[in-house]
Amino acid sequence: MLRAVCVFLVLGFALAKHEQYEGFGLYKIIVKSPEQIELVNYLSHTLDLDVWSHAVPGRAGQVLVQKDKKALFQNELKGAGIEFTLESDDIKEILDLEDRLLEAASKKRNNASRLDSLPFDQIYTYHQVDAFLELLAEAYPNTVTLVNAGKSVEGRDIKYIKISTTNFEDSSKPVVFLESLLHAREWITLPATLYAIHKLVIDVTEQDLVQDIDWIILPIANPDGYEHSHGEFRLWRKNRSSAHSLVCSGVDLNRNFDINWSTASSNNACSDTFHGSGPFSEPETTVIKSIFDQYSDRMELFLDIHSFGSMILYGYGNGQLPSNGLFLHLVGINMASAIDNVKMSWNPNYIVGNVAHVLYDASGSAGDYAMSAGVPFSYTYELPGHRFGIGGFGFFVDPAFIEQAGFETWEGIKAGARYVRDNRTKK
Ligand SMILES: [Zn+2]
């Protein structure tokens, strides 16, 4: 059965051309004061920059700048005394390189014999993942249930799997919920959930985690955006709704949840952090809400897997800590240490903290909504953004890191899952 899955997975990879990114510059910027942060924020709005990571004193940021705005951007930075490095003068070259690497990995696998499980050397498309989940549920009917939970804006099925030895009927078990690809371009997050599925269903080495916990895994939370990122727009982040503007499409799904909605997000439909027309205005977030509604009475842990930055973050996005803030932090450190123990040497150690303290204020996130819905341990993982010793290329995937991303993230997931299993807050 799985041999058929894998043969199917090999098919369907298409190269994208990335012309629209030609000449875009990727800058590393170093800020030293609140005034400099403010100027970068101002420039990001007025020059329509793509902020990949926010610079704060002590931690550099990365910003993608359109070709015709690079000179102006550099002048502004120089004028304000902000240190910067041009890491790539043409991001299209990096995008083309990513395509070549992924294509080469895919070709290499055609000759490989490892067809008895899901190969972790490729970033699979929506259709490939969909076919895999369908066949997985068929092959493992005693533990895997595939749920078709609703449709995306463009009509794609949003599917998640439930993994349980007791068909989710033993109410004494905790539920752990893993999600990836809420943000379309964060491709490296998909192998993290697929690896977890692999270790919970196909290559089970941690029997206790399968026996003691009911799992919900949603690998592609934003199918339309994800498909779009495999086509013309590799760096697409949002969903594909065109209902809110005649000019720009897409809602940032991680700003669309009903928790402090619109208080720290954008009202501009063209912004990458546009929050939509109201809480849960999008079908994709409504599906995720329904999962919380259905299982929050038993759900102890929610991990929303994003990239990039090597961070484990918790809420709330306005800087207020929930009543279990200390435990939230300690479990975050447990998970981070487990990952750090096996991470690649050139990636930094994980940072653990409240999202507003570590990064920036953010409202309407899935992680915050989970806590407000009663999930005691809710985290946003930001997977590493470094490419094998070459440096920080953020969202781009090196095939050689795919399995490692799955493997090391699984160490964190295991630590978190075992903690909530052993320290139940709900019974
Ligand atoms: Zn993200």
Automatic annotation (TrEMBL):
Domain Peptidase M14: 122-420
Domain of life: Eukaryota
Cofactor entry: Zn(2+)
Residues of the active site: E382
Range of residues in the leader sequence: 1-16
GO cellular component terms given for this protein: extracellular space
SUPFAM superfamilies cross-referenced by the UniProt entry: Protease propeptides/inhibitors, Zn-dependent exopeptidases
GO molecular function, one term: zinc ion binding
Keywords: Carboxypeptidase, Disulfide bond, Hydrolase, Metal-binding, Metalloprotease, Protease, Signal, Zinc
GO biological process terms, semicolon-separated: proteolysis
Pfam families in alphabetical order: Peptidase_M14 (PF00246), Propep_M14 (PF02244)
Alphabetized SMART domains for the sequence: Zn_pept
Entry's family note: Belongs to the peptidase M14 family.
Protein name in the entry: Peptidase M14 domain-containing protein
